[in-house]
Design goal:
single chain; 404 residues; mainly alpha; 13 helices; 68% helix; globular
Length: 404
């Protein structure tokens, strides 16, 4: 079997042959190979996280007219390593009165909640951890562990500001989880499967779902940013009013785990955007051209997925460093009064049109779905304009003069 056509299977077969040759039974060899795979996945995620630290600092420097890391190594590439050393050797402080067990578990859970998402992250047709048939449900469940870590950190710190940041995180999770799940259901409806591998393959054989459900992508993007706790939804760590929020009592590498988890989670969400809406490991049909067939190999498929993930991560950074933080009452009103009703309307519209036109010509189907999204966007904008005019008229109306 060619290594480049199925690298995971080739490595598995070689390791199985090696370990059974050493006298291990197939069960113990399988367990050992699984452990090696887990370690390799965690190592890849951590190396990627180190790179993301440099990328984030360089990008925000460009947005803010600064240089960013430019001293340690070429272009400052080695700057994350002194930062890691600094975090490791910093004093580890546990506040008096804190619940030490919960306090120390929270940073580990924060990073773990992101790393376990990579178990269902398909890099290519045959390069993935596991093809879980309920992978979309798994994404929601595993991602919620990160919010649980924030709650644990705030509650166990014995600090009212940390607790306030944790409460804000609960409010964000309960509200924005709903449109996020509904947006995730739209690719499920279009493919009839919760498997991320199946969703990717459906787009490679057809068209990217961004052309069929662009509004669902926007709802997913906004809801995911809120779930990440990144600006403008970073109310769980609002420095101006709650002094850095839930992780105020953390120092050294414990704080580093929270920071690393946030960066890796943002990149992972960018990757899931590419998988759910931009064709996964496909190159938008270019790999079907005879002289570009090499783009369909697992190596270039992984490059496509990671490249789309980086673009999604850049969009999240762009929004973070451009849009100011909003008030919590405005944020919750935006979700419950706008985003949640819009997501349910999109789900119903997509399900109805998909059932009516899925057997028709491909481009007729795409045209109908795209036109329906534009009509939905136009209706939404008209409703927003009407509400805005009403609110403006109420604000500009003369106030009644008090009678004495």
């Amino acid at each position: 079997m060619n290594f480049w056509n199925d690298p995971i299977q080739v490595i598995y077969d070689w390791l199985m042959q090696t370990f059974t040759g050493w006298g291990l039974s197939e069960i113990w060899a399988y367990i050992l190979i699984s452990l090696i795979g887990i370690v390799a996945l965690v190592a890849f995620a951590m190396v990627l996280d180190i790179m993301l630290v440099w990328v984030e600092r360089k990008v925000v420097a460009r947005f803010q007219g600064r240089l960013g890391p430019n001293r340690v190594g070429p272009f400052g590439l080695f700057q994350p390593f002194p930062d890691i050393i600094k975090l490791i050797i910093k004093e580890d402080i546990t506040p008096e009165g804190a619940d030490k067990v919960v306090f120390n578990m929270a940073p580990v859970l924060s990073a773990m909640s992101v790393i376990i998402l990579w178990a269902v992250f398909p890099l290519a047709a045959r390069v993935y951890g596991t093809d879980l048939n309920v992978a979309v449900l798994y994404l929601v469940a595993a991602g919620a562990i990160g919010t649980l870590a924030v709650i644990m950190a705030g509650w166990s710190s014995n600090n009212k500001y940390a607790l306030l940041g944790a409460f804000r995180s609960v409010a964000t999770m309960v509200s924005f989880e709903i449109p996020l799940v509904v947006a995730l259901l739209i690719p499920v409806v279009l493919t009839g499967s919760m498997s991320l591998k199946t969703i990717s393959e459906a787009q490679i054989d057809g068209v990217p779902f961004i052309l069929i459900a662009p509004l669902a992508f926007l709802v997913f993007l906004v809801s995911a940013i809120a779930e990440l706790g990144r600006s403008p939804f970073d109310l769980n760590e609002g420095e101006s009013e709650i002094v850095s929020g839930f992780h105020i009592e953390y120092s050294g590498m414990k704080f580093g785990w929270f920071y690393a988890g946030e960066l890796l989670h943002s990149f992972t969400v960018g990757g899931f955007m590419g998988i759910l809406f931009f064709g996964g490991w496909g190159w938008f049909g270019l790999e079907k051209i005879s002289w570009l067939g090499w783009l369909g190999s697992p190596f270039f498929g992984a490059i496509a997925v990671l490249g789309k993930a980086m673009i999604g991560y850049w969009i999240i950074m762009w929004i973070k460093y451009t849009v100011p933080r909003i008030r919590i009452d405005h944020m919750l009103a935006f979700n419950w009064k706008f985003l949640t009703p819009l997501s349910f309307a999109l789900l119903v519209m997509t399900a109805v049109l998909h059932s009516l036109f899925k057997g028709q010509d491909t481009w007729l189907y795409v045209g109908v779905m795209l036109a329906a999204n534009f009509v939905m966007a136009w209706i939404t904008l008209e409703i927003l304009r009407a509400v805005s005019r009403k609110e403006r008229a109420a604000a500009q109306a003369p106030k009644p003069v008090a009678q004495h």
